[in-house]
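Methods: holo model generation. Sequences were used as deposited, without trimming of termini or removal of tags, and paired with ligand SMILES retrieved from the corresponding compound records. Each pair was processed once, and we did not select among multiple samples. The sequence and fe (ii) ion SMILES for this entry were:
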Amino acid sequence: MRHVTTVLLALLWLGCSTDNGANTGANEQPGLDGEAMVPDVTSETPGDILAEPDVARELPVFDEVSFIKRPYLQWPTATSVTLLAETNEQVPLDIVLTYDGGATHTYSEPRKPEFTFLTMPLDGFDGWSHQVDIMVPEGIGQFELTIANAPDYQREVVLPQSLDSFTMIAFGDTRTNLDVHQEVSNQIVAEKPLIVFQTGDLMDSALEVKQWNEFFAIEAGMLESSFYFPIFGNHEVGGESYYYELFETRNSYDSERNWYAEWGPVGFIGIEQYKTRWEKDEDALAWLEESLIKLQDKRWLIFSHHEPMYTFSNHGAWYEGRETIQPLLEEYGVDLVLSGHNHCYERFEVNGISYIVTGGGGAPLYSTGTGSEEEMPLLKNWGKFYHFLRLDISDENIHVTVIDTEEKSVFEEFDVF
Ligand SMILES: [Fe+2]
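and the model returned the structure below.
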C-alpha cells in the first residue's frame, strides 16, 4: 500500500507484574488535543525492543476514538503484524501489544487518502485511515492487542509462525446478494479460523465506496478475529485505489496483486490476471518461480488466482494458465489451487494437484457438472450451492471440508497429502 507511514515509537516497560494494565502508565500522562498527529517521541529502532528499560518513558495520551472500520490484521510474520482501521476522528491510535513479560506501544497516523479511477477522482471514505506495522518482540508468538484510546477494542493474537497446525477458510465471489454474503460470513466466523482467504470478486462494483462499506460491514466479524487475505478478481478492476488502500500486500510483483505469504507450515501464492500478462511476461514467470523456490521448505504450498484453469461452469477455463503456470506448480510441488469466478463448487484433480473452484459466497449461482469427454475424468465433485471451504492444516494433511451454508451441512470432505 502506498502512503504507508509506519511508526514504532515509545517502548514502555510496565513492570514485571503487567497485570493486564498495559496502558495505565500512558493514561497517567498529560493529554494531547485531538488534532495532534503522531508525537515526536524519540523512538528506538523498530524491532529493537527494550526488555527492561531503566526509566518508564513519558507517553502521550490521545482523545478517545470511535471506529467506522474496526481494526483488522494482515501480514503476520515472526516479528510484526499489520493493523488497519478507519476512525471517525483524526486521532492516532495508541496500540498496546502486551505479552508475557512486557508491553510495547505503537502509534498510527490518521490519513485522508485520495482515490482515483485513471485520472478521475473517486469518493473518499468518511473517516480517517490507519495502517501501521506493529513490531513483535522476538520469540513472542502470542500476545494481546488493546488500544489505549479505544477502550472497547481487545484482541488475542496468535501468529501462524508459531503454529504447526491451524484452520483457515477459503471462499469467494461474495458480490450481489448481501443477505447470502452475511449468512456465509456468520458461519465462517463461527469456525474461528486463524486465516480467512477470499478468492476475488469481493463486491459487484469496486468503484463504489458504498459497496466497500457494505463489504466491510458484512465481513466485520471475520476481519476482527482472523488474519484476512483477498486476491484481485475481475470485479475489483477499476477499484484498485480502494483495494490498495484497504488491503496490504507484501512480497509482490508488478502490482500489489501478485504476492506470496508464509503462514507457519503453509507457503501461499496469490496472483491476479488483469494487469500481469502471464502468457508473455517472462519476468512475471521468473518471479513466480523464485517465489516457489523460496517456499520450498514449507510443508504445504497453496496457489490461488481468480479465474480457474479447470472449470466446466459459465466462464471458460484459463488455458493460458495451463500452458504457462501449471508446469511450474507441478515442478515445485504445489498441493492445492484455489479459484473462484464461477459461482459454484468444483474439484478437479490434474497430475496430482487439486484444483478447486469456490465461488459460493453470495453471487448468483451457476451450474456445472458437464464438460468435454476428454476432461470429464478430471472432475471429482461439483455442486451449485452457497458454501465455503474449511482447511484444517496439520503436518499430516490438509483436511478440506466443504460446507453448504444453506443446508448447514457438509457437502464433502477430502484430504490433500
Ligand atoms: Fe469473477
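Residues 1-36, 40-55 have pLDDT under 50 and may be disordered.
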